[in-house]
Amino acid sequence: MDAFLQNFFDWPLLLDSLPALLGTGLVNTLILSLFSTALGIVAGMALALLAVSSTRWLTWPAQVFIDVFRGLPAALVILVVGQGLAPVGLSLFGPNPYPLAIVALALISSAYIAEIFRSGIQSVGRGQMNACQALGMTYWSGMRHVIVPQGVRRILPALANQFIAIVKDSSLVYFLGLLTSQRDLFTIGQNAAVNTANLSPLVAAGIVYLLITVPLTHAINHIDRWTNRFSNPGARRDKASTRTLRATRREEALQPQTHASAAEQRS
């Protein structure tokens, strides 16, 4: 037990690694995750709209893209994009590997986000689109103004989970080689663990990952409950009716006891 604690929870090493993890690793991890997720959302929405289209020549390319990038390991995509497009990246961005890493992570996230968007869009009843067309709206206008806004509200927790997955996948960027100022959370923890022959810095990196993912998950769940409560008046009325019915039943249950007590007092 002492050996386990010494190897994974050496508090001096763990605390010594926190400044680099928070000052450099956290910033770089958030940059990679936020930019790749933003690009993935844009591309994923486009892919989802193509995938639900009734035109076959639009549906098949989107489905092939989604299947390929969902099926490939994230490490392989990062290596193929980061090394295969390295000459292009070098001429455009210089020696910084971040742009190509963001592109690779965006390709991965767009495939998953496309499926998330598609599930949200298809969860909206077909009667909504029929109503849009009855009002004279085109298919794409109905999707833009009616269907997509309703579908997006239903998939917020799934989008948050995808962002969390990208945060963790960003640790694979170390395959491309990073300068000291470009290291992410995992790379800093791994390098410190190798230099000290102790895994406590990696545990510290894991704690920082938890500081990102756990509050985000609870925040999105709270927002989802809040939006459901204010966007579903029927559910609120049902809850209010249930509370009223329960209060009435409690009053009815207390009435016989009250009458009995009054009779006892009169006698």
Automatic annotation (TrEMBL):
Region: Disordered, residue numbers: 231-267
GO cellular component: ATP-binding cassette (ABC) transporter complex
Subcellular location: Cell inner membrane; Cell membrane
Organism of this sequence: Paraburkholderia silvatlantica
Protein name per the record: Amino acid ABC transporter membrane protein (PAAT family)
Topology relative to the membrane: Multi-pass membrane protein
GO molecular function, one term: transmembrane transporter activity
InterPro entries associated with the record: AA_ABC_transptr_permease_3TM (IPR010065), ArtM/GltK/GlnP/TcyL/YhdX-like (IPR043429), MetI-like (IPR000515), MetI-like_sf (IPR035906)
Pfam families named in the record: BPD_transp_1
Main location (coarse class): membrane
Transmembrane segments: 20-52, 64-86, 98-117, 199-220
One of the protein's GO biological processes: amino acid transport
NCBIfam families according to UniProt: HEQRo_perm_3TM
Lineage: Bacteria, Pseudomonadati, Pseudomonadota, Betaproteobacteria, Burkholderiales
Protein family (similarity comment): Belongs to the binding-protein-dependent transport system permease family. HisMQ subfamily.
Chain's role: Part of the binding-protein-dependent transport system for glutamine; probably responsible for the translocation of the substrate across the membrane.
ABC transmembrane type-1 domain ranges (all copies): 26-220
Keywords, in A-Z order: Amino-acid transport, Cell membrane, Membrane, Transmembrane, Transmembrane helix, Transport
